[in-house]
Structure formats: structure tokens, C-alpha cells
Amino acid sequence: MTLQTMLNEAAESRPGLQLTCFKEAGLPIYVLNVRVLVKEVRALPPVETAVLRAVRAGLTQPHEIYRFLGLPERSLMPVLAELGKKEYLQYSRPIGSTDAMVKLTAPGRIAVAEACSVLPVERTVQICWDALTRKVVNISSEQLTKPRDMTEQGRFEVPGVNARELRPTDISLEFFDAILERNKPALALKQELIAIQSIDRRELRYLECLMLFYRRTAEPAIIDVGFWREDGASLPHEQAFREIGGPERVGARLLAESASNRPESVMQTARETRVATRVAGQPTVPAELEDSVGSTLQSLLCHQHPQVLRDALKNAKSRLLIISPWIRHQVVDRFFLVDLEAALRRRVKVHIGYGIDEGDRQGQPAAPAAADVKPAITEQAKRALDALAKHYPNFKFVYIGNTHRKMLVCDTDFSVTTSFNWLSFRGSPRDKPRDEYGQMVRKQHYIDQHYDEGIRLIEQGYQGV
Question: Tens of pLDDT along 302-358?
């Protein structure tokens, strides 16, 4: 299922609510190694079954069993000892007799009738425990994403409860039968949980999802946070997230306040809200509100740049130009590519130019001897953008050669010249603070001038002064 299809379904799923924004995220799941005691049903080995059947047929002395089965005594002695250990046979010696006698016990009669044994066994099984719903979930750890991969993909890590204080008694037994069945040995017929003894290991991972922000149509000041996966909405996660105060922790209150302040916003309020830190995909005040300020020149700080780029991708009508020395797939991700392709389908003319000469050859990764050299573009990003350029004639994707220019031009609405690397730096406020500065121009004469200069650079490359 494509991202656009998921968003369309999510937007239409809740009458009376408007899908305001979304964030690619992950639900917290702990992978636990749990030591359990199980009652295990196993098929009896053939020799043990034969011995028990011989005793049930009336043979009571070991030497009779040896002769009946045609096996040497040294082979059957360990078998008789094992059956005694399992309490399937009972040994006795009549008074005045030198020969031992055996007879079936009650468990032995059951075992020979069913040709299987029931044993208590200690095992270590891996389970997945949902840190929001606080329940065991029947999924494989291979379906989950590690925290370092979440960071690399730019996904938001949904907060949940901490599993450090989790005790065996806190684990619900839901889905445990299915998990035991999946982990049982090949020889076992059935396993039944007796007790959870200890938790040996806890590892945090994430189940990929979309985190959705809904605004109530009748009450715009109220923001609901939901979660959506390919199989639809997850209402248990939404309810559990609300119970731990999750919406407040991801900025829903700030989003609600910006909505309630909008009708009476003055110019200063709009400007301050626009530069406020974005939390978990929180949208800033819409561009039309900011346009009412009427300023020709506007300063942009580091964390404001990503939203400006997203707005340009989503709202461009005729032309879009981006120049960025470096391009990384962590920024040119699935969401970026969906928005870019949507713009191309709207017949927007898109130009993207990149390239920095630091030892790389035509944007390719540097040779192994120059490990400290950063290539101009990652392979994943290049493959994706090349594919779009081949499919859409209105998309020009060009390696410039050696530029340190960072520029963005959207229609005749605005242009930005900046120190911010548009396509290689996420600029998230959660990352290490970094000073970047840009200026947005809204006067058409300068916008056209910047666009012409950018097109000239893309078409001719940098030739020096």
C-alpha cells in the first residue's frame, strides 16, 4: 500500500475530524528474552514404548522383558532406569526373592496408552511486549526496526512506558500459546505454560506506523492523535497513548493553540508561531497567514528550513528549483519522493542541482583511500531521483560539478538563499543544535532573478569567475 493511499484512507476514516498533518513514526515494542517453565508433551521413544507395552502385557521381571524384545541387557538397563525416573515404572522386590519386579504406575498407564510423555521443562523464549498497550503481541522481532535505523530514516519514536521495572507478573499471557507453539522443539507435541520465571533481556525496537494529527471540525482547539498501519487504524494504541499523556508529549497542545489563536493573530504572533520549534511533525502557521505580514525579506533559522521545503513541494504550481551541494536518502526519503512526484504530476517544472568537488567523481562515492571524503549523493537517493527524471520530462536532475550554493525558489511566491543544506540535513530540533541562517525574499523581481541565476548554474555548471 502506498503512502498516499494510507493517508487517503486515514483522512476519510473519521467523520467530523480533519487530518491536519502526519509523521512517519514507530510504536515502541520491547523484545524480551523470558525464562519460562512449560509442561511439554513429547512422543515416547520407540524402545520406551515397547518396554511399557511389554509390562502392560504381563511381563514383570526385567530378564523376561530382555528376552521378549530380543535386546541385550546392557541396552535395556538405561531404558528401565529412565522410565523409573519418569515415574512410569515402579520397582519392587518380593520378600524372599532375588529378582526385582516392575509394574506400571498410573502415569505409566497413561503414557503407554497415548505413547507420549508429559515433562516439566525450563525454556527461554523471545516475546514482543507492546510498551503502549502493555500486552504481549504475536509478531516476530524481524518485523521491528532498531533505534539506530529509526534515527537514520528520520522516523519519530513514539514514547511509551519504560520496561526497566517490568516484572514477570506484569506480563499478560495473551498470545503466549501461539508463541510457545512457534518456539517448541521438533519432538514436542504440545507445550503448556506453567510459570514465567524471569526476564533475562530487554531490547527496545519499533513497529513502523504513521502518527496522525486530527483537528476536530466543531472544536478546532482539540487535537486527536492516532496511529495508522497498512492494516488500518490502531485504536488500542491511540487509547493507551492518550492515557499516558502522549498527545501533550508530542506537541498536540501547541498545535491546538496555534489553531485557536489564528483568527485574532496579529503580525507578531504569526511570526513568532512560524519560528516556533516543530514537534513531531507539528505544522506551522499556514503561509497565507504569514503573507499578511507583507514583508519583502524574512529571516529563517535552522529548524524552519525543512517546513519551507515541504510547503514548496506540496504547494508549487508552476516551477520549483532546488540547489543543494549534497543529497542524502535520509532527507530524500519516501515522503519527499511522494511529494516530489505529486508536484511532477501537477506538471510543475522541477530543477534539482547538486554536486561538490571534494574528491568525488561526478557525484559518485569516493575511492576507499579517501574514506574521509563525503560523496555528493548517496546511492539510494541517486537511484530514486534518476528514476523520476527518466519518467517525467518536466524534471531536470543535474550534477553541477562544484557548487556550495544552497537555493530554493518556489513559483513567484518566494526564493531562499541560505547556509542550510536542503537535501542532506534534516534540521530537526531533536538533533544536536546547529546554526544555519537563510533569507526568504518575497518580491517577484528578486525571485525571478534568483530563478534565472539558478537555472543558468544548472544548465551550464560552475565555470569559475
Answer: 888 998 999 999 999 999 999 999 999 989 988 899 899 999 999 999 999 998 875
Amino acid (1-letter code) at residue 19: L
pLDDT of 283 over the 80 cut = no
pTM of the model: 0.48
